[in-house]
């Protein structure tokens, strides 16, 4: 009887070894050829793009990221400091500006503006010093100012700060416009 039990145990172990591995339900592989943003992950802290996607106040920014084809770039490891204008910030721009920037022929201009909102590295709120400058992805500088609890970037108010898995998002009430060259 003891030998029969041992034989049955060996058969069960061998059978289990021949079974295909179970797929983790929390993260699935992306569509072939798709970028990092296509990876499904409902358990990790959201990255900077998912912070914007999950915010009803950032639909215009998300549309701009898609038009510029920057969703995958900002979904990568980073780290990034992103200054994310709310929808109302885009509404302050002259009429037709956003529509024109979203056109395929304006992709370079749109990318320049979006790159002016991103710093490679994480600058936490407690690290900000009055008059601090950051060299953005488009190689132009922004200036951060801090007076008590009030934080601004190029004079635009920071409304809130959201930590992300690949950086930090500063929610702002204006669109940062790069200096003209």
Automatic annotation (TrEMBL):
Protein name: Fasciclin domain-containing protein
Keywords assigned: Signal
Signal listed as a keyword: yes
Signal sequence bounds: 1-21
A Pfam family annotated for this UniProt entry: Fasciclin
FAS1 domain span: 45-176
GO CC entries: extracellular space
Source taxonomy: Bacteria, Pseudomonadati, Bacteroidota, Cytophagia, Cytophagales
Species in which this protein is naturally found: Chryseotalea sanaruensis
Top-rank taxon: Bacteria
């Amino acid at each position: 009887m003891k030998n029969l039990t041992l034989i049955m145990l060996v058969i069960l172990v061998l059978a289990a070894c021949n079974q295909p591995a179970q797929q983790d339900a929390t993260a699935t592989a992306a569509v072939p050829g798709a970028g990092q943003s296509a990876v499904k992950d409902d358990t990790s802290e959201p990255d900077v793009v998912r912070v914007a996607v999950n915010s009803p106040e950032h639909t215009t920014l998300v549309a701009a990221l898609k038009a510029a084809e920057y969703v995958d770039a900002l979904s990568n490891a980073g780290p990034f400091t992103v200054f994310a204008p709310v929808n109302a910030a885009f509404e302050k721009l002259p009429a037709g500006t956003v529509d024109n920037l979203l056109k395929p022929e304006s992709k370079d201009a749109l990318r320049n503006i979006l790159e002016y909102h991103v710093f490679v590295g994480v600058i936490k709120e407690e690290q900000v010093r009055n008059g601090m400058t950051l060299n953005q992805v488009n190689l132009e500088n922004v200036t951060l100012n801090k007076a008590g609890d009030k934080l601004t970037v190029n004079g635009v108010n920071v409304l809130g700060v959201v930590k992300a898995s690949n950086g930090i998002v500063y929610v702002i009430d204006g669109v940062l416009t790069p200096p003209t060259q």
